[in-house]
Amino acid sequence: MRSLFALCAAVLFAAAVTAQPKTDPKAEPVTTPPPLDAGASVYQKVVRSTVWIRSDRGGGRTATGSGALIDKGRRLVLTNYHVVGDVKAATVYFPVFSGTKTVPEKRYYTERASKLGIAGEVVEIDKGADLALVRLERVPDGVPELPFAADSPDPGQAVHSIGNPGKSDALWVYTPGKVRQTYNKKWQAKLDGSTVTFQAKVIETDSPTNPGDSGGPLVNDKAQLVGVTQGGVIDAQSVSIFVDLSEVKRLMNRRSVQALRTVADAKDPPKAEPKKPARDAILASKDDGKFFSEAGFKKVQPVAEKLLKAKGIDLLIETHQTLPKADADKLKAMSGPDRTKVYEQFAKDRTKELKTSGIYVIATKNPPTLYVIVDNSAGFPADFGDRVRSTLLTNFANKKFDEGLEKALTLALEAQSLVEKK
């Protein structure tokens, strides 16, 4: 869901003539230091929150990457899933400073691993978007958390990244760049000998990245997080991929992440209690539009009950002959995008009214329209809403309404790992 903001600013200029005081020609000239370069200023603000991560893969193999502290109270470091893999433990290093300068030599940290390395536990992963959260045993004094930007960056916007390239002997390496585009992407990569598939909204930039930079922060000129380094594109010049901020926010809105408490530093922090469902009973779905058979629509209730009981997630499906409180003829006369906006607003108002947290489907026969809205806090994959909508539309086009509904319900259960093994 996107929000568009319009900003109008009026600037008034006034000219004034003032008398200039006389100066003593023998006096020493007053000099002011030149303004700090934008990149250097951003680096100084971000580097303290940036970390080097080492993950023991067994058999003498160690994977390294980067990350950023994004929640100091809960001691959460954000990185890539492919940096930590399926290993639950990782060691994290924050930069050491000599005066105002970072100590960049990698050897300095490896020789002092027992003192500088901080134990971390991987507490959440998003394999689809290649993201992971590591909870630290402690956070050094004076380390700030990295704030999030309000929105994803636009093409042409300046961005800055900090990482720890494996082929370099230096850590906390700075790279500037420009955003080329943001878009949805599906790609594959090798991880610990197997092939994994990622699909997420990404930011493409012209800034070079190297193995080891993965998981590091991509920030704007205000030193606010806009993305997470994913890697460079093979056989392409000056093309790098970063996981977009929207995917990070979706991860942070998961119930399991929200349930993580702020606790005092301890080797074994208490485990969070599971969050209770927002309501005691499911919302009543209805098929006023008569899309489905009675037997077919009855399958909605047990799935909704399972989602609510196990995950605290709502599932609500509503069909109508035409959109409530709308003129069918006006809707049919609209262009596709304009009609979608009407249904989107209806869905937003409906979910707000009912305070839903999960999946809402609205469908009408006059005009034939379907809209699916998925709450980002429900922990579904980034493309889940599109997959449900595509499944329903494909089957609806072939008059297989019950079959499409059943497939969509199965998708919801699979996405929450609630499908019963046969």
Task: Describe this entry's structure for a reader.
The chain is an alpha+beta fold and 422 residues long. It folds into two domains: 38-271, Thrombin, subunit H; 286-415, Diaminopimelate Epimerase, Chain A, domain 1 (Roll). 25% of the residues lie in helices and 30% in strands. The strands form four sheets. Strands 1-2-3-8-7-4 form a six-stranded antiparallel beta barrel. Strands 9-10-11-14-13-12 form a six-stranded antiparallel barrel. It starts with 37 loop residues before the first helix and ends in a 7-residue tail after the last helix. Residues 1-34 and 265-276 have low confidence and may be disordered.
Query: CATH topology of the largest domain, what is it called?
Result: Thrombin, subunit H
Mean pLDDT: 84
Report the structural category: alpha+beta
Measured distance between first and last alpha carbons: 36 Å
List the helices and strands and how they pair.
Layout: H1 38-46, E1 50-58, E2 61-71, E3 76-79, H2 81-84, E4 89-93, E5 97-98, E6 101-102, H3 106-110, H4 113-116, E7 118-126, E8 131-136, E9 158-163, E10 173-191, E11 194-205, E12 217-219, E13 225-232, E14 240-244, H5 245-252, H6 255-258, E15 286-287, H7 294-297, H8 300-311, E16 314-320, H9 328-333, H10 336-354, E17 358-365, E18 368-374, H11 384-397, H12 401-415
Parallel strand pairs: 15-16, 16-17
Antiparallel strand pairs: 1-2, 1-4, 2-3, 3-8, 4-7, 5-6, 7-8, 9-10, 9-12, 10-11, 11-14, 12-13, 13-14, 17-18
